[in-house]
Model the fold of this input.
Amino acid sequence: MAEITVDMIKELRARTGAGMMDCKRALEEAGGDMEKAVDILRKKGLAQAAKRASRAAEQGLVVSYIHHNNRVGVLLELKCETDFVARTDEFQELARNIAMHIAMANPQYVSRDQIPQEVIDHEVSIEKEKAKAEGKPEAVLDRIVEGRMGKFYESVTLLDQPFIKDDSKKIADLINETIARTGENIVVGRFARFELGGQ
Done:
């Protein structure tokens, strides 16, 4: 088994924000493999994030972002459990990153459960007709439509969208990683995006 050094623990801590003992245990479990240790910590963090999701988030920030061309602006409400976390650099950076993402990616909703059922039904019927027109067999139509609806959700739902600075992560992943590091539930309350000349 590879020797776990203090430098390895420090590097893993810098990459994940996890505690020293958690980093040491993850490296031991991964046999000294840094990437595996990152994955182990991320999975544990996501499990902890899921547990925290039921806790009330009543504090937080309203942040604004104006794109450099001064033609697009965003107001975002990002909520957490305590004022202490709301004042941390990490929480504020998350809020800024999400607001900037909204300016660039133009989501319509925070999450899937905010999409009106008639909008989903309409989209499903369009995708089903498209698949039929392409000659797809009836037996696989539902699976094809389900896959295409995933793309639809990515285009209109903030939490499903790949983060513009790192498309290997969705906005939901970004939030869950911060939940794991801060130990608090974090929720996007609402947002408004303004574009010059838009509706």
Q: What stands out?
A: The longest helix spans residues 34-52. Strands lie at 59-66, 72-80, 162-163, 166-170, 187-195. The first strand starts at residue 59 and ends at 66. Residues 131 and 137 are 9 Å apart (CA to CA).
